[in-house]
Known about the structure:
Layout: H1 7-27, E1 32-42, E2 46-47, E3 50-51, E4 53-56, E5 66-74, H2 83-90, E6 96-99, H3 100-103, H4 110-135, E7 144-147, H5 158-169, E8 183-186, E9 189-190, E10 196-197, H6 202-211, E11 216-220, H7 224-229, E12 236-240, H8 243-254
Parallel strand pairs: 5-8, 8-11, 11-12
Antiparallel strand pairs: 1-5, 1-6, 2-3, 4-7, 9-10
Amino acid sequence: MLSSLSRPRALALCALPVAALLAVVGFAPLPYAIAQPGSTADVLGKDKGREVITITGAPVRATDGQLRMTTIVATGPSTDVGLGDVADAWFRTDRAVLPHDSVYPSGKSDAEIEKHNLGQMKESQDAAALAALGYLKKDPAEVKVTLHLADIGGPSAGLLFSLGIVDKLAGDGDGGDLTAGRIVAGTGTIEADGTVGAVGGVSLKTQAAARDGATVFLVPKAECSEAESELPKGLRLVPVTALDDAVESLRSLGQGQESKVPTC
């Protein structure tokens, strides 16, 4: 047993390795990525001087308002994230701490990850075009859709691409003028059959949407709770599960039929 005189010294000696361990942990990289609200882009407009949506083989209507796809920005796949970074992000509403492997495929180089993300975007664009043309009952062999959005990867813009195609192609009787002059934002993957899927990071994307002027945000229904957790004031959430209900909700909003529009 330690005497009362020797105990403080013993505790001090024990504290030294603990302090050293904490110092090492504080500087050691952790398996996380830090995410924050990213850019938004109007799929009805232009990106770097080019139309985001170009359609040939069918009449295209002039559109009003905006349909803004949303993104998050995360620390790079090779960026070291330390304890201080995690602690800072943990207490901020405009930051999120995400498992590194949920953002980036494990065991891949930066170049491989970029290629993977761009591949996902291309697949998403193809599915978006098929979903929109299927909804409008137009033949993909006759109507050609080209989508252009530089420097953005992943599948989460699929829903907004589809809505943009519908907005440009549809007449007033089958889903035209989806925005009614509003700035509408949203997120969600899409399948060729029109099914909308979850994406992650929606609480950050709602902040990006509100920052860029949106008043309506389309969110995959499964992610309503996350979207509500940090919902900016003045932004209305509209849950969706498929392209057709997203179109119907926007048309109802445009016609002032608020009671027909679901909420989270």
